[in-house]
Fold this sequence. Notes:
Helices cover 83% and strands 0% of the residues. It is built from two helices and no strands. The chain has helices at residues 3-22, 27-41.
Amino acid sequence: MSNLSLLLKFKGIISVLRESLFNRDSGSEHLFGQHYAKVIFG
């Protein structure tokens, strides 16, 4: 895996988790963020 794709994936995780934190009322987004992080980090 190249560093660029790893960086883009990491930035994607950060943006998803940041949105889930700011959008507490949308539970589906928060669950999606948790699932995404679990898939990436195992």
